[in-house]
Amino acid sequence: MDKLWAPWRSKYIYLRKSSGCIFCGAKKPSAVKKRHIIDKTKYSFSMLNIYPYNNGHVMVAPYRHVKSMELLSSEEILDFMNLVNKTKVLLDRKLKPNGYNIGLNIGKISGAGFAGHLHMHVVPRWTGDTNFMPIISDAKVVSESLDAMCDLLRKK
Question: Regarding the domain with residue range 21-154, which homologous superfamily does it belong to in the CATH classification?
């Protein structure tokens, strides 16, 4: 099977095509719900990835549209990394994963979907979260909706 029927995801495809940089679009106050914003700091913000590798896949980005960390000020780097850490702690508390993949894809060749706007992926991992679905059917099962995950992570 090459296709997995998921019509509810179509709104995310149209969102990506119509709005340019998803990170710059997230700066608007109206974007908090629409873009699944989890947290905001002075220089950075976190948001759920709408194409998650796993439940709770969060991206942390600076507000400024820069393509690499050396273009950030010292204050922006500190704020950015502190929010990455805060995001990991939040995911620890809410989802209790067994581990993480945390990292940057810098440049299109590295796999960055938005190569012009630096962002760090924080992907929770669980023992056994890889299974036969990606191997046999080229499909990944993510069991929680983005709205439900966003609500869970925003709760204090």
Answer: HIT-like (3.30.428.10)
